[in-house]
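Severity: low
Component: inverse-folding endpoint
Summary: output formatting inconsistent between runs
Steps to reproduce: submit the following structure tokens with default settings.
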């Protein structure tokens, strides 16, 4: 992990996890706004029961837990499956942060 970014590269299953202090442009609202822009949409879906708050948009989920914002990109194809892999990864990151 360098600069809060961890990437897993694979020919069939690549994703990125970004962890930042939840301040300024990296707070939940700012990170979710960036995710929406990255995904080319104005909408997001709340993900209940994950961290302090969480939402997904396209292939990206954003989670706030304590003083950290977690941004998981491209772990799934989209919201139609409910982001199970992204949610599982976020839970692992949250455990690792505490």
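Observed output (run 2 of 3):
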């Amino acid at each position: 992990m360098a600069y809060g970014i961890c990437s897993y590269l694979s020919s069939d299953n690549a994703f990125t996890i970004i962890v930042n202090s939840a301040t300024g442009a990296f707070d939940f609202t700012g990170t979710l706004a960036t995710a929406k822009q990255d995904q080319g949409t104005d909408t997001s879906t709340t993900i209940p029961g994950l961290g302090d708050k969480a939402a997904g948009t396209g292939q990206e989920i954003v989670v706030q837990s304590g003083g950290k914002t977690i941004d998981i990109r491209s772990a799934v194809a989209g919201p139609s499956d409910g982001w199970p892999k992204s949610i599982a990864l976020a839970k692992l990151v949250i455990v690792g942060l505490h």
